[in-house]
Design goal:
By secondary structure, the chain is α+β, with helices and mostly antiparallel strands. It is about 65% helix and about 15% strand. Strand 2 and strand 3 form a beta hairpin.
Length: about 120
């Protein structure tokens, strides 16, 4: 996936995971990795920043696999921020789809219109 596409949306993806349930960093990375290419060097700085900005709280929970895990829990402030980002994303992506789908949604249809235009 194009790095420029990912850069601005990863934060919203992290928030989307935590709006559903509390989670620790590695779990968040695994959930996001099902759909997009992310790693800890991307996710942990976002988690630290959003915690510092009071969008998340943290707590430790014992793990059967070693050291206690740091869980992130969304705050009310974080939820409000999440809703704001969702609204901005929905407006942005809606506009993008209006632009890129003007020629049709299928590559073949777009190609046919393009060929007709240049011949």
């Amino acid at each position: 996936m194009n790095a420029q596409f990912k850069r601005g949306i990863i934060e919203l993806c992290v928030l989307s995971v935590l709006v559903e349930k509390d989670a620790y960093g590695y779990l968040i990375i695994n959930q996001l990795s099902e759909f997009i290419d992310v790693n800890e060097n991307t996710i942990y700085p976002i988690l630290r920043r959003l915690t510092k900005e009071d969008y998340f709280e943290t707590y430790l929970e014992e793990s059967s696999e070693g050291a206690p895990r740091k869980y992130y829990k969304m705050t009310e402030k974080g939820f409000t921020y999440y809703l704001t980002l969702r609204d901005e994303w929905d407006a942005f992506i809606g506009g993008v789809y209006q632009i890129i789908n003007r020629g049709g949604k299928k590559n073949e249809e777009i190609y046919r219109r393009f060929k007709k235009r240049i011949t």
